[in-house]
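Postdoc handover notes: sequence design on the structure in folder B. Input C-alpha cells:
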C-alpha cells in the first residue's frame, strides 16, 4: 500500500512539474511573440538636441572676424513602419544657427531649417534595442539677418540628408531615440539689394534625443 501511495504522489509531482515547465515556456514564447508581432504602424516623433551650422569664412562675401556655429536644434516627424526593418518618414528639422561677427560693424546670423523626407532602415539587435540609418533630402531654408541693420534675406535649396541612430523600445508603442543627422552643403541663386549672385548654404549637423509613439494597427 505504501508503495502504491508513493508511486501516485511521485507521478502527481512529475505531472505538476511538467505542466509548470510547459506553462513557463508558453509565457516566455508569448512574451517574445508580443514583442515582435505586427511591428507595422503609423508613428510620430520629436527630438531635441545640439546643432552645428558648419559655416566657414568662404561662405560669406565679406570675411567675418569670428563665427559661432553651435546651438539649439530640434525636429518633429511622422512616418510609417512597414515591418521590423523598413520605414519612411517626413517632418521638419532645425539645425540651429551660425552667427558671424564683424566687430564694430555688427553681426550676420544664418539659421538653417527645413522640411525633410527619408527612408529609414532598421537593424533589430534585440527585442529592446534597434540600430537605424536614414537617407533622404531636406529643403534647406536659410534665413539671413543682420544687426544693427535690419537687412534680411531668405532662400532654400534641396540637399541630401543622412542619419545614424539607435532606439530603445520601452514597449510595443513607445521608443526612446538617439540620432545624429547630417545635411550636405548646398547653394541657391538670390538677388539682394539689386545684386544677383550665388548664396552658399553651410552643411548642418544635429545630435538629437527624443521619443516616438507608434499607433498599433
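Designed sequence:
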Amino acid at each position: 500500500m505504501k508503495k502504491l501511495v508513493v508511486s501516485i504522489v511521485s507521478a502527481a509531482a512529475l505531472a505538476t512539474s511538467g505542466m509548470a515547465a510547459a506553462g513557463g515556456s508558453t509565457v516566455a514564447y508569448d512574451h517574445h511573440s508580443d514583442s515582435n508581432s505586427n511591428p507595422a504602424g503609423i508613428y510620430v516623433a520629436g527630438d531635441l538636441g545640439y546643432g552645428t551650422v558648419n559655416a566657414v569664412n568662404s561662405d560669406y562675401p565679406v570675411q567675418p572676424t569670428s563665427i559661432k556655429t553651435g546651438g539649439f536644434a530640434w525636429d518633429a516627424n511622422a512616418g510609417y513602419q512597414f515591418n521590423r526593418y523598413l520605414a519612411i518618414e517626413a517632418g521638419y528639422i532645425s539645425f540651429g544657427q551660425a552667427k558671424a561677427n564683424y566687430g564694430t560693424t555688427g553681426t550676420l546670423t544664418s539659421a538653417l531649417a527645413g522640411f525633410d523626407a527619408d527612408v529609414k532602415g532598421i537593424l533589430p539587435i534585440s527585442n529592446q534595442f534597434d540600430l537605424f540609418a536614414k537617407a533622404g533630402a531636406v529643403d534647406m531654408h536659410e534665413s539671413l539677418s543682420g544687426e544693427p541693420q535690419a537687412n534680411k534675406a531668405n532662400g532654400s535649396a534641396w540637399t541630401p540628408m543622412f542619419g545614424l541612430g539607435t532606439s530603445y523600445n520601452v514597449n510595443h508603442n513607445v521608443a526612446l531615440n538617439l540620432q545624429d543627422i547630417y545635411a550636405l552643403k548646398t547653394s541657391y541663386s538670390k538677388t539682394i539689394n539689386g545684386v544677383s549672385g550665388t548664396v552658399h548654404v553651410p552643411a548642418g549637423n544635429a545630435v538629437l534625443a527624443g521619443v516616438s509613439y507608434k499607433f498599433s494597427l
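Context for whoever picks this up: Confidence is low (pLDDT under 50) at residues 1-36. Don't rerun without checking with the PI first.
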